[in-house]
Amino acid sequence: MPKQATDEREKAVGSAETARMATLDLLRRELARGTAELAVLSILSSGRRYGYELLRLLQGTGQGLLEIREGTLYPLLHRLEDAGHIIATWQAEGRARPRKYYAITPDGRRHVALLRAEWSGLVNAMQELLTTFGEGQP
Questions:
Q1: Which distant-in-sequence residues (6+ apart) come within 8 Å of 102 by Cβ?
Q2: Which segments of the chain are extended strands (E)?
Q3: Predicted confidence band at 62 (pLDDT cuts at 50, 70, 90)?
Q4: What's the mean pLDDT in 80-92?
């Protein structure tokens, strides 16, 4: 194969790989955005947390798929508070600076139960679809 054809093929393969990686990155961001509310409320269901603690927990779980950053988390916390799903209180511990703690409300518990049911339905539907029409299936 001539060198020019080989170079063009390598560029095409590299370009396709770059496009695939960009698509996966976009999918991960959309997945994180779509599941952030469920993730935050699920964590708060186990007890109150302050913002940075929530951020660490979100970033440390989900095998890197839940890429939630401060710029996403704090506006989400404000929306959840405005909706009555969480409450925020300031508390100082010892001589440390006060921290804003977030706790789930009874309305938030009802809301997270609905979100969990929706998520379970989506996961089951996708699993069925992937099993039925997965790779190598006719």
A1: 44, 48, 49, 50, 51, 54, 77, 80, 81, 86, 87, 88
A2: 49-50, 86-91, 99-104
A3: low
A4: 97
- The closest of 2, 76, 6 to 41, measured between CA atoms, is 76
Tell me the average pLDDT across 3-26.
Answer: 72
Q: Which pLDDT score, from 0 to 100, does residue 120 have?
A: 94
On the question of pLDDT at 138 being above 60, the answer is: no
Sequence ranges of the domains in the chain: 3-133
Gap between the Cα atoms of 50 and 99, Å rounded: 6
Side-by-side strand order, sheet with 49-50: 49-50, 99-104, 86-91
pTM reported for the whole predicted model: 0.75
Question: Considering the domain 3-133, what is its CATH architecture?
Answer: Orthogonal Bundle (1.10)
